[in-house]
Amino acid sequence: MDPLRTYSPTLMRFYDVMFTRFCRRHMRALRVPHWGMPPETDNSATPLVVFANHPSWWDGVAFMLLSRRLFAGRRMFIPMEAAALARYRFMQRLGVFGVEPSSARGAVAFVRVAGQVLAPNRDDMLWMNAPGRFADARERPQPIAPGLVRLAETAPHATFVPLALEYPFWSERKPEMLAAFGKPWLGVALQAMGREERAAAMSATLGDTMDRLAAEAISRDPERFRVVEQGSEGMGGIYDWWRRGRAALTGSRFDARHEWRR
């Protein structure tokens, strides 16, 4: 199936709302450190490849929210294992296309579709999990799937941007969704390398971005981040209703957050 033909802007807007509500319900916030905002490209018509680590099921939600909030006007396309996509066929209307990672036919099909998405003078984006499998955020070096390594040969005109993802718990009941974009690579620079050198370079730049994000996560300082999407805070339920009512009766400001502030 051709993802460029089946992509539905209307359905994408609908699921943007659904994913946003889901994130707000289950995450405290989606945060990006101030240094980790996406880089500006010299040409808005330059296609992008965003390659991320793959620590969690939540990565797909992060892709949706980040692409819609920080890359306005660009369409996102995502490769997914064909067997998994068969269980979520609606995602084919959201730019997701199936791949067979363990077969030569699948590799050829991936290169063909990726080449269409990343054609010159387009502003579309290809987002993918670099390892090609789930990998702990502390794993070093981060694995880089062979298809991603070969992509620079198919699209040397594209810009390749690393994306680090992490989901730590801080002081609230819900976890944080942390994301950071790293230093971009020009596809032509990656193309000039041999495949082993290219894989090592992409793994290193992704790992460096992950290490910087881990340091920000350890700081537990919300002021070092930009809030992209805010979820609810506090215990929730009857307990917070009671606390809110008590604050109203005493004329004090209600703060649902768990951490004590002066």
UniProtKB/TrEMBL annotation:
Occurrences of domain Phospholipid/glycerol acyltransferase (ranges): 48-168
Pfam families in the record: Acyltransferase
MF (Gene Ontology): acyltransferase activity
Keywords noted in UniProt: Acyltransferase, Transferase
Annotated source species: Teichococcus globiformis
Protein name: Lysophospholipid acyltransferase family protein
InterPro entries, per database record: Plipid/glycerol_acylTrfase
Alphabetical list of CDD domains matching this protein: LPLAT
